[in-house]
Write a structure and sequence with these properties.
The chain has 475 residues and is of the alpha/beta class. The protein folds into 3 domains: 118 residues, Response regulator (Rossmann fold, 3-Layer(aba) Sandwich), CATH 3.40.50.2300; 110 residues, 2-Layer Sandwich (Beta-Lactamase); 216 residues, Orthogonal Bundle (Hypothetical protein af1432). The strands form 2 sheets. It has a 5-stranded parallel sheet, with helices on both faces. The chain has a 5-stranded antiparallel sheet with strand order 7-6-10-9-8, sandwiched between helices.
Length: 475
């Protein structure tokens, strides 16, 4: 598959199964490599120093440290070292943040077969960049040496007059790329081959004058009228008596199209996930004679608590969105509860209440079956936790398992506050609503018994926002 040989790969991965899956895919590509797998930051730093990998492949989210932390460690030591993020899911914002932080690429675990191609592409680009930087250093040392490298270089290269913005030289690769014969390309002003506004071009050149070099993305215009996305490295020609600079142009049109398609698919996937969750939740709400407003309110309550909770900082943005969207499925198990119990206007008998309590496990089982179809790491994992555990109590007296304190999943503890508050301030078949201030007093009293006391503190600091949500989404 590739001419690269004996690649040293450092895997930062807490899930050995995922690391083994990645290793199998690389082996299938007939790449010769050695590897080390680490799970902690300390071992990661040691491996960087002692194993001296050619490339790092790091999981995005690990218990002991994150892929972004691993990337920061690498960039502090080796600014240009090849680095690939491996993740179960990634939305547009997270992908952009990773690339801005210096990741060369990212691979979704559901598309692990792409990893060998990402390795080859990243290492090839790194090698090409090293060669290019070496060539650039040589270019600045001697104009004669520069001329030889310039005309023989396969990269698209141009020399501009910094004052007149006119092309004074072009290598054969540039003539082929832009589609102009040498004698027609030389002499053209820079705006003739650019699809960007002249003011933007001048701004880039001004930065070049200040820094001595500049790197940016732009759009170039070919002789046939085609517009191409380009990555440009520009530098001042120090050895020339005239004020001139050079540019090295790399066409990234195909990469941009691929990135755009990936972002579009990610957005479509997120919409499909939200639509799936919402349709399932609305079905359960109609079964309970609801209007859907309860679903929207509880989603907003959960979202608010997550935003205000320090724990939210340890979760990726896609996890954050999935949690509050999944809150809609907390009562999906009520579909399996008979109408005589679900819609009973009075107090339930002990036997009826025992049956009502099974809606937690019924919901969890239903979601688990959907997860089995979707496969490991599906977007329903948070929904299953919320459905099964949102009636557990901090003091261990809840159901269905009698979990206590932090044994209860964090997302279920958040859901408990949202669900109980909404039950207090809205009408149900078996009760009348109470006023917001009364509900707040109840929630405060139940801190440490029913609810996580830390989350109750967050609720109390934001109780006015809860009142606004309850008043905005009316049944």
């Amino acid at each position: 598959m590739s001419s690269l040989r004996a690649i040293r790969i450092l895997f930062a991965e807490d899930t050995i199964a995922d690391a083994e899956l990645a290793i199998d895919e690389i082996r299938k590509a007939n790449i010769e490599f050695s590897y080390v797998i680490v799970e902690t930051e300390k071992n990661f730093v040691n491996a960087l120093e002692n194993f001296r990998p050619d490339i790092v492949v790091s999981d995005y989210m690990m218990p002991s440290f994150t892929g972004m932390r691993a990337l920061k460690i690498v960039r502090e030591r080796k600014p240009n070292h090849p680095f690939i993020i491996l993740t179960g899911s990634m939305n547009e914002d997270t992908a952009v943040a990773c690339m801005k932080a210096g990741a060369n690429d990212y691979v979704l675990k559901d598309h692990m077969a792409r990893l060998p191609f990402a390795l080859i592409e990243t290492l090839s680009k790194s090698r090409e960049k090293d060669e290019k930087e070496s060539a650039l250093r040589s270019l600045g040392e001697s104009e004669d040496r520069y001329k030889a490298l310039f005309h023989d270089n396969a990269a698209v290269m141009l020399i501009f007059d910094s004052i007149e913005l006119a092309i004074v030289d072009a290598n054969p690769a540039a003539c082929t790329y832009y589609g102009w014969p040498y004698d027609e390309l030389v002499g053209k002003r820079i705006e003739a081959i650019s699809a960007r506004p002249l003011d933007d071009i001048k701004a880039d050149l001004q930065r070049l004058e200040v820094r001595g070099s500049n790197h940016y993305e732009g759009k170039d215009l070919l002789a046939n009228g085609e517009i191409r996305d380009v990555d440009v490295y520009a530098g001042k020609l120090r050895s020339s008596q005239r004020s001139m600079h050079y540019t090295i142009v790399h066409d990234i049109t195909d990469r941009k199209k691929a990135e755009s398609l990936l972002k579009k698919r990610a957005r479509e996937l997120a919409k499909n996930q939200e639509a799936t969750i919402s349709s399932m939740a609305i079905l359960a709400e109609y079964r309970d004679r609801g209007t859907g407003a309860h679903i929207q309110r509880t989603k907003e309550y959960v979202k608010l608590l997550l935003e205000k909770s320090e724990r939210a900082a340890y979760r990726s943005r896609e996890d954050f969105d999935l949690i509050w969207q999944s809150a809609a499925l907390h009562d999906i198990g009520k579909i399996g509860i008979p109408d005589s119990i679900l819609l009973k206007p009075g107090k339930l008998t002990p036997e009826e209440f025992e049956l009502m309590k099974t809606h937690t496990t019924l919901g969890s089982d239903a979601i688990s079956k959907a997860e089995a179809i979707l496969g490991e790491g599906s977007f329903l994992s948070y929904a299953r936790e919320i459905a099964e555990f949102h009636h557990e109590r901090w003091d261990g007296t809840g159901y269905p398992h009698g979990l206590k304190g932090e044994e209860i999943p964090f997302v279920a503890r958040v859901m408990a506050i949202a669900d109980v508050y909404d039950a207090l301030v809205t009408e149900r078949p078996y009760k009348r609503p109470i006023m917001h201030d009364e509900a707040v007093a109840v929630m405060k009293t139940e801190a440490g018994s029913h609810f996580d006391p830390g989350l109750v503190e967050i609720f109390l600091r934001n109780e006015k926002a809860f009142l606004f949500i309850s008043s905005f989404y009316l049944d």
